[in-house]
Amino acid sequence: MIDLAPLKETFKDKPLAILGLGKSGLPVFEACAKAGIETLLWDDNEQAREAARKAGGTVRDFTNDDFSAYAALCLSPGIPLTHPKPHPAVLRAQEAGAPVLGDIELFHMAKPHAHTIGITGTNGKSTTTALIGHILHEAGVESAVGGNIGAAILTLPDLGPEGIYVLEMSSYQIDLCPTFEPEISLLINISPDHLGRHGGMEGYVAVKQKIFRGPGTAIVSLDDEWSAKIYGEVANSERKDVPVSCEAPLIEGVSVTPDGMLGEDGRPVMDLAQCPALQGAHNWQNAAFAWAACRAAGVPAAKIMSGLRSFAGLAHRQKIVAVMNGIRYINDSKATNDQAAAMALRTFDPIYWIAGGQPKDGGYGDCEKHLAHVRRAFLIGQAQDAMAAWLEKHNIAHEKCGTLETAVQKAHETAQRERLENAVVLLSPACASFDQYKNFEQRGEAFCALVEKIASQDAGKQTGTGGQA
């Protein structure tokens, strides 16, 4: 666990108010308790409050208190800071001049000289974060991975002076970091997402750009309009800039050709066809960013190549669950928006597509570009009616299934009856999971369980697990 003892003097014996007691909030309490820092805890959910009491925390509704009595307000990323409207506690803290921050900012305050790699983007950041962590581990570099992926940051080990923290950072988390500036910062891409939490696209982009404050290295995509605009501004800043493109060769920077050749500063360095878990243009983008980040961190090229080849992939991101009679069943539950699902639709053909859930703003314009790959769609959740109307307009065969269980069974029966070459049954929802599941992980696990049940009942099956599409 990260040692927060240096903050005792900073806080001058004032308690830290912690609002939101989930994945990040309780670890903040535990780290503070270990460091002898007084805390006061609150969550609008009674179940979360009871868990905090059982952990030994002091739980009281402080949201209407005078925050001048507190050192700061530590906010869970899931609680609105600005939009659609700030939580009342945020307003009270701001009125009193108390800092409003998140657990990553607390980490930075306690370890201001730690080596850090910060990764953000609308899509691909989890895979890129995991890939960088894997490469560093395989290269023998002391490192720890956390933030928006895996472990909450304050639960990570206290690394030595040369250790590197690899941190996935959502827009919500960046917004709660008033001073943290990753040593190496990555922006993989930007497309519309979480717009309600940032007051629109301009607000969302502005938050993402904050990851490039201060000195260090900025690794930025040139392949979308918003990222390219940010690169133009970063290129004139005090950060060293490294552009990345999978659409055009670069004389300076890192790029990937249409056939998967990774290049650095105009020289070909590695054929990404050698990396089984990194197939498809979206994964090539992840590999290019991981290459650039690890090079900036001083990892030798040969060790990066070895790490790229041995990477096993990320759970719920285009993972092969089973192969039955040549048909692959793929879990891409992490594709919770249009752009992420479009990456999968672009990669496979033909597809028996399981889609739907809690709809997000913005429609399905990116998926639309690859509908020719969809043999038939099987729709679930709140979005099924709207998606059915959309698919009808584009003459794509589909049926409304309601539940994932029904969709998996029907997709399986149709795929096995038709037995098309290279066919996949693909869960890539293009929607959030919260209408029927706790999170995308639970949805993906449900898909895997349903497929594995079918596979165990299929006497003529040919199975394979743990692969990566």
**What do we call the CATH homologous superfamily of the largest domain?**
Mur-like, catalytic domain
| Main β sheet profile | 9 strands, mixed
**Rg from alpha-carbon coordinates:** 23 Å
Number of helices: 17
Backbone structural class = alpha/beta
- Domain count: the total is 3
Low-confidence sequence ranges: 459-469
Mean pLDDT: 92
Oligomer: single chain
- What is CATH's topology name of the largest domain? UDP-N-acetylmuramoyl-L-alanine:D-glutamate ligase
Strand order of the largest sheet: 6-7-5-8-9-10-11-12-13
* Global shape: globular
Overall number of strands? 20
CATH architecture of the largest domain: 3-Layer(aba) Sandwich
User: What fraction of the residues are assigned to beta strands by DSSP?
Assistant: 15-25%
Helix content: 25-40%
Please tell me about this protein's structure.
It is a single chain. Helix content is 36%, strand content 20%. It has 469 residues and is α/β, with parallel strands linked by helices. It folds into three domains: 7-104, Rossmann fold; 113-310, Mur-like, catalytic domain (UDP-N-acetylmuramoyl-L-alanine:D-glutamate ligase, 3-Layer(aba) Sandwich), CATH 3.40.1190; 319-468, Protein-Tyrosine Phosphatase, Chain A. Helix 6 (125-138) crosses helix 11 (281-296), helix 6 (125-138) crosses helix 12 (301-310) and helix 11 (281-296) packs antiparallel against helix 12 (301-310).
